[in-house]
Amino acid sequence: MKIAVVGSGIGGLASAILLQRKGHQVTVYEKNSCPGGKMGQINVDGYRFDTGPSLFTLPELVDELFELCSVQETERLPYVRLSNNCRYFYPDGTEFNFYQDREALSSEIERVFPHDAAAVRKRLLHAEEVYNLSAPVFLFSAFHKLSNYLTEPYRHMVFKLHKLDFFRTMHGANAKDFTDPRLIQLFDRYATYNGSSPFRAPATLNMIAHLENNKGAFFPVKGMYSIANSLYDLALKQGVRFEFNTRVEEIMRNGAAVSGIRTASGITSVDAVVSDVDVRSVANHLLKHPLKRIINKIERSSSALIFYWGINRSFPRLDVHNILFSSDYREEFRHLFKEKSLSADPTVYLFISSKIVPDDAPAGCENWFVMVNAPSDCGQAWDKLIAEARKNILRKIDKMLGVDIGSCIVTERIASPLTIARDTFSANGALYGTSSNSLLAAFLRHPNTLPGIKNLYFVGGSVHPGGGIPLCIASAKIVSNEIPDAL
Questions:
Q1: pLDDT tens, position by position, 337-361
Q2: How far is it, in rounded angstroms, from Cα 313 to Cα 418?
Q3: What is the secondary structure of 48-102 as a DSSP string?
Q4: What pTM did the predictor assign?
Q5: For the CA atoms of 394, 397, 402, 404, what is the dihedral angle to 10 degrees?
Q6: Confidence band for 444, pLDDT divided at 50, 70 and 90
């Protein structure tokens, strides 16, 4: 088959590799000048910044792509396991490290949360159980395909549905299982991994903690963008063609089947299309289909406001991943999803890749990726919101470190819901497509195929099974399994 992959995010790159490996002729069409989608990079004044995903879990999914293509282990993506998943800073001055080593973690929990030590161990075991029970169904198969409901993983899950905790919110489960408000807030944070609110998302999502804290957090030795770069190189070696600076303007149909794509150069006939574009953008701009009437009504996930700061000194107190918590988490999410605005006291995520990759910043300096959760764009006064957020973030960091950080910033770039929408075609700048702020979230997420249109497939963070590097690769595997090998 002649297959067009629209978009070169992680889902698109993985799809291209898998389908080319099955003997098809694959061409990737990318509107930007380089691969990666949301996973990009900025080089400025001697600093390099990863612009998109910063957490790397389930690296074996990337390894599998290299294994499939018979690439020697020494030639695959190099990465290391982090000793500390994240360093947490609380408004009361508490600091907590979520260490990978179980003995170190136990000591840290006893130091900071002594009354909840047993509850944390129990939670991590439960998260593993829920993941193992639900992943074959919700993450690694075509969830919306009725025939899959007859398979063993589905039948097994039916008898243990009560363990999935559908009918409580994430916060409700955490508030019941832990006594310390600081620990509740830590586990509530996992709702943000798919752009949702812990006060509305189902407790099933507590299984996310398993990926980071049981399976482990990792980091590529050349930075996060090297994931996209290595998959691009792998795709080229398999024979995948890439057309950069080429925007697909329409997915063409002949009756109930895909027939081609239209770009500025004209119409190209293809046998199948795999879209790695935000599904709302597809519905509104690329595909003439009543699909958009449904998709446009579903609540969008959160977006992000990110400051890329070149800092002219180093801070040993900070780790690769750092969280500076808000003093009122509920109020922060009320602003995000009800007010469509930003709290004056946001939770700040601070990611410093130069802790692992020294060349990402000049000697004695650090590259700071400073992010706060933001609402998707609905016409807010972003210039004002960004200016206010910058002041609030600096004030929060200054208080925590006891340093005037503003005076340490020597270079700055900013990403907002507006720029994310413009650069990645993510509708309204939403990072994960739809939110998971309901009990039916898994059922409302767009499937990897579309009934009524043959040979049109969807991958990436806006469709099943969700956002993040592992799930985007999972979507590619699902689609690859739907398309037969070339004869």
A1: 999 999 999 999 999 999 999 999 9
A2: 31
A3: EEE-S---B--THHHHHHHHHTT--GGGS--EEE-SEEEEEE-TTS-EEEEESSH
A4: 0.94
A5: -30
A6: confident
